[in-house]
């Protein structure tokens, strides 16, 4: 916390909640994408402005942006409903007026009416009939337009909801979606004793790969790992990008032994890939990952589970990388 505030003072950044969130995430090192973006700006300009901090917050912390989108959709829907009500109301007024005019015409239809008067009445009836038909057509057309506009708003809302839960680089679930699913599944496991296993995957020597080949190549490798997991785990609960070069897989109704087998199969499949740079066709060498595996123990909570599986990844790295390590059991008091 102190380091974040110190860095903000150094760059003359206002200590707003949004700015603090950006700088705290930067100094904590939990978000590699945010760190790269900030390092690029600092390397180019030597400092970070309030506006640049705001842009980084909007890019990497999407909850407020999603809330703003929802408010905008609600506002547009409200305006649309007001327009439709005005059209219907005007149609009702038009209909009432035509009804009155036709009643007046009917009263003038007397036995001694002249040919000219009858002709005039027929013309008036025709005019009012056309007005009624025109008003009805206008209402029908406006309602058809309204239906299309509501459908567009529905699609926009669905897109907003989907994007709020997706990592844009890999197409996997993002950290927000992971947190929501992990909370739901741990509560379910506490309630009914369901088996729940978590895999944490961390790419080996990813920073060295980025430094040697650049971020676009690093992104290519991240997408490969994500695609490999998606193809191998179809039907599983959730695959998420945890941050930077880390991925999390939630497996419900899965024993610890089966979870370890899944992790080992993924580790071997990724290590067997032979990737080349798209621009030069230069081989990237062996791409490896380390896995931590943990089984949820009822009552321990999601934080304890993630700490244990993170510790297991650390042990896998310590054992030489490109390996799978089981997390120690939780300590519950």
Automatic annotation (TrEMBL):
Domain GGDEF: 194-329
Known EC number: 2.7.7.65
InterPro entries: Diguanylate_Cyclase, GGDEF_dom, Nucleotide_cyclase, Rev_trsase/Diguanyl_cyclase
SUPFAM superfamilies: Nucleotide cyclase
Pfam families found in the cross-reference section: GGDEF
Catalytic reaction annotation: 2 GTP = 3',3'-c-di-GMP + 2 diphosphate
Top enzyme class: transferase
Single GO MF descriptor: diguanylate cyclase activity
Cofactor: Mg(2+)
Gene3D superfamilies: 3.30.70.270
Matches recorded under PANTHER family: DIGUANYLATE CYCLASE DGCM-RELATED (PTHR45138:SF9), REGULATORY COMPONENTS OF SENSORY TRANSDUCTION SYSTEM (PTHR45138)
Protein name: diguanylate cyclase
């Amino acid at each position: 916390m102190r380091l974040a505030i110190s860095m903000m003072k150094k760059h003359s950044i206002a200590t707003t909640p949004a700015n603090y969130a950006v700088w705290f995430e930067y100094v904590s090192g939990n978000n590699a994408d945010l760190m790269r973006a900030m390092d690029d700006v600092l390397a180019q300009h030597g400092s970070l402005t309030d506006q640049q901090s705001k842009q980084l917050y909007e890019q990497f912390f999407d909850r407020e942006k999603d809330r703003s989108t929802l408010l905008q959709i609600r506002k547009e829907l409200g305006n649309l409903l007001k327009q439709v009500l005005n059209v219907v109301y005007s149609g009702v007024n038009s209909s009432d007026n035509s009804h009155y005019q036709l009643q007046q015409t009917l009263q003038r239809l007397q036995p001694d009416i002249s040919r000219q008067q009858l002709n005039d009445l027929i013309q008036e009836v025709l005019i009012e009939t056309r007005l009624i038909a025109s008003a009805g057509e206008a209402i029908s057309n406006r309602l058809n337009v309204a239906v299309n506009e509501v459908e567009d708003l529905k699609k926009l809302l669905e897109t907003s909801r989907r994007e709020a839960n997706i990592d844009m680089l890999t197409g996997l679930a993002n950290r927000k979606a992971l947190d929501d699913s992990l909370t739901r599944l741990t509560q379910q496991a506490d309630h009914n004793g369901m088996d729940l296993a978590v895999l944490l995957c961390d790419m080996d020597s990813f920073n060295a790969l980025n430094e040697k080949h650049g971020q676009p190549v690093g992104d290519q490798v991240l997408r490969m790992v994500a695609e490999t997991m998606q193809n191998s785990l179809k039907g599983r609960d959730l695959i998420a990008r945890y941050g930077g070069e880390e991925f999390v897989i939630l497996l419900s109704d899965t024993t610890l032994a089966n979870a370890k087998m899944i992790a080992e199969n993924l580790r071997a499949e990724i290590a067997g890939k032979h990737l080349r740079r798209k621009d030069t066709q230069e081989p990237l060498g062996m791409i490896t990952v380390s896995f931590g595996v943990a089984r949820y123990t009822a009552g321990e909570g999601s934080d304890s589970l993630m700490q244990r599986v993170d510790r297991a990844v650390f042990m896998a790295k310590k054992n030489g990388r490109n390996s799978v390590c089981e997390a120690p059991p939780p300590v519950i008091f």
